[in-house]
TrEMBL record:
UniProt keyword Hydrolase present: yes
Top-level taxon of origin: Archaea
GO molecular function: carbohydrate binding; hydrolase activity, hydrolyzing O-glycosyl compounds
Keywords assigned by UniProt, alphabetized: Glycosidase, Hydrolase
Name assigned to this protein: Carbohydrate-binding protein
The species this protein was found in: Haloterrigena salina JCM 13891
Domain Fibronectin type-III: 362-454
Region spans: Disordered: 340-365
Any one biological process term the GO annotation gives: polysaccharide catabolic process
Keyword Membrane: no
Alphabetized InterPro entries for the sequence: Carb-bd_dom_fam9, FN3_dom, FN3_sf, GH, Glyco_hydro_5, Ig-like_fold
Low complexity bias (residue ranges): 353-365
Pfam families assigned: CBM9_1, Cellulase, fn3
Length: 639
């Protein structure tokens, strides 16, 4: 269906609701919208003290859309109405309206105000809240942003101060300075406090959403050192570039103390026009876990970006249909809004959860597994909560280190950067939805002594593949002709050597004294993060095979997927042949440094007429390396 026909098909009530709406604001609000919201501790409440949670969508900048995106004026406002059309299945209770500096400079502030007037009035008619966002993404410590912010809010803040359904977002995405953690937050707070005071003086009762440096990602510090002003919510921008394991510490923990508003979140496909890498995700791997996490925190508000067809991540196709498939977010947003449409609405009698009660019991059955030289895994079971509350997070502390915070659905974590041959104590606590923390449950363990590696691998200054007389000539070969099994005497000679640089690991296998009747295959086993798990981990445990004369890597049944950047070359030599493998570190999530250890073995298979007759190896004498990475040797990167 064409977008104009689709938007024109909105319910008659939707169209009637806008009849008579003027694009020029009068002396006061024409229509009374939803009631004024106030901030009480970590909750946003209506005039009767009921908790309110805003869930909605972020629209395109109306001025930019009309001036630059070839959008007809009525088409934009039709989309505005669609987002709040219950009959069409859309139940947004808040609309975020970004105004970019480009819109102001190109069209002028009068045009911006005209668009805001119309949006404010239409939101009131639709019975929803409107979040006006000064949508800048830039440094926050320049005279330019200071001047522009003051000018924008001096005009906007008093103009809609009496509109109870309007909220303000001070500065959409401040970027730098962002280094230094809490110190960066303090620098931001010093810069932003005069702007907040200016807005508050002009709009004493309007709730204000405040961001943070690094594109509103330092929300955690809002609970530690909040601004001094009343009526504040603290924003977060969450996209697939954010590891889900970081959500709880970055955004969940502050929600125990202050209202958190995720004013931007979303995902799209790799093929989407202008899609940045940080936006690429899927419903199954990112969208559903994000929904589960947000819903666990009842006081977290959100706006999904973007309710439109152009700005990525966009919910709709060009013809205003919701695309199917796991890579598209529109259906998830629509269903989520529908499922929660009656929850935490203004006027709905809902008690605010008390911060009093009993904390959860301590986590049960804390135990240490998979102990290595510099890491170990701790596991536990979910405890009971005397009040029947859910556990929202666990906090894991090793000795006197800073705690690691995990979501309540997690029951294990890896303890890393440990010292070899040292005793540690790990403590685990549980935190419920009231923010009450349990007593710790603890366990003690000792890391393994650091053994001598079976081989060290020197660094190279250049790619050695194909350079017989170059870097390879200085590397000591390792014999890999231990006969693991055979049904006849064989005298093959097999050696391997390896080099590394910041880009890749290079492994060379030389096979000589090969009989004409022998079909031979070189095989490299790698556990690139030295996780030494019982089975192949599907990430960077590799079993790579190449036949004589082969031009590509064969994958065994157990190996992790071979990355696009991995390659092999084979070369005929006197009495045999050579294989040279290139394994890129980054594509397997490994950062190489001197001292990094990983698992490795080298095998050679001999066939005759398609039947295996022998196998040679370097390290594993049991021939179980193909199913058990624990059988690999430990090797170490050297200078």
């Amino acid at each position: 269906m064409h977008r104009r026909r689709y938007l024109a098909s909105l319910s008659a009530s939707s169209v009637a609701a806008f009849a008579g709406c003027s694009s020029q604001r009068t002396d006061g609000p024409v229509t009374a919208g939803p009631p004024r919201l106030t901030v009480e501790g970590r909750w946003v409440t209506d005039p009767d003290g009921n908790p309110v949670v805003l869930r909605g969508v972020s629209l395109d900048d109306p001025v930019w859309s009309l001036e630059h995106a070839e959008v007809r004026e009525e088409e934009y406002w039709d989309a505005f109405r669609l987002a709040t059309d219950d009959d069409a299945g859309w139940h947004a209770r808040v609309l975020r309206l970004p105004i970019t500096p480009r819109s102001i400079s190109d069209a002028g502030m009068d045009a911006v105000v005209d668009a805001l007037d119309r949006a404010v009035e239409l939101a009131a008619e639709r019975g929803v809240y409107l979040l006006i966002d000064y949508h800048a993404s830039e440094r926050y410590d320049t005279s330019s942003i200071d001047r522009r912010l003051r000018s924008f809010w001096d005009r906007v803040a008093p103009r809609y101060a009496d509109d109870a359904h309007v909220l303000y977002e001070l500065f959409g995405a401040p970027t730098e300075p962002a280094a230094g953690g809490l110190e960066a937050w303090r620098t931001w707070r010093d810069c932003a406090t005069p702007w907040l005071s200016r807005v508050r003086d002009r709009a004493p009762e309007t709730p204000i959403v405040v961001g943070s440096p690094a594109w509103s990602s330092m929300t955690a510090h809002a609970a530690e050192e909040p601004f001094d002003h009343d009526g504040l919510l603290y924003s977060a921008h969450v996209y697939p570039s954010w590891d889900p394991r970081s959500w709880e510490a970055a955004f969940g923990t502050p929600a125990f103390d202050v209202p958190v508003f995720v004013t931007e979140w979303g995902y799209t496909t790799a093929e989407a026009a202008e899609a940045d890498a940080h936006l690429i995700g899927s419903t199954a791997e990112w969208g559903e876990p994000f929904r589960e996490w947000v819903d666990a925190h009842e006081n977290v508000h959100w706006c999904a970006a973007t309710f439109g067809t152009r700005r990525q991540p966009a919910m709709f196709d060009a013809d205003w249909t919701l695309p199917d498939g796991d890579d598209h977010m529109g259906a998830l947003v629509k269903n989520w809004l529908a499922d929660r449409r009656d929850d935490h609405r203004p006027g709905r009698a809902t008690p605010i959860p008390s911060g009093e009660g009993s904390p959860p019991a301590s986590p049960e059955s804390v135990r240490i597994e998979e102990v290595h030289e510099t890491r170990a895994t701790v596991r536990w079971e979910q405890p009971l909560d005397p009040d029947g509350d859910d556990v929202l997070q666990y906090r894991v502390i090793v000795d006197d280190r800073e705690p690691s915070t995990l979501r309540g659905v997690e029951r294990a974590t890896e303890l890393s950067s440990l010292d070899p041959d040292r005793e540690y104590e790990v403590r685990v606590t549980a935190v419920d939805e009231r923010g009450l923390e349990s007593d710790p449950a603890s366990a003690r363990f000792s890391t393994l002594d650091r053994t001598r590696p079976a081989a060290t691998i020197p660094r190279t200054s250049s790619n050695p593949v194909g350079d017989e007389d170059g870097a390879w000539s200085a590397v000591e070969p390792h014999a890999a002709d231990m006969l693991l099994w055979t049904d006849r005497p064989l005298e093959n000679t097999i050696t391997w050597r390896a080099l590394w640089d910041e880009t890749a690991l290079y492994v060379r296998i030389d096979l000589t004294d090969i009989e004409d009747w022998q079909d031979t295959f070189a095989e490299v086993y790698l556990d690139l993060d030295n996780s030494r798990e019982e089975t192949y981990d599907g990430e960077n445990d590799l079993d790579m095979i190449v036949p004589r004369g082969g031009r590509s890597i064969w994958q065994s049944a157990n190996t992790a997927p071979i990355s696009d950047g991995s390659s092999v070359t084979t070369t005929e030599t006197d009495g045999g042949w050579r294989a040279e493998f290139t394994i890129p570190w980054r594509e397997y999530g490994v950062r190489p440094i001197v001292g990094h250890r990983f698992g490795m073995d080298v095998h050679t298979v001999v066939e005759e007429d398609g039947e295996r007759i022998a196998k040679f190896g370097w390290f594993d004498e049991t021939d179980d390396a193909w199913v058990d990475p624990r059988k690999f040797a430990t090797v170490e990167l050297d200078e």
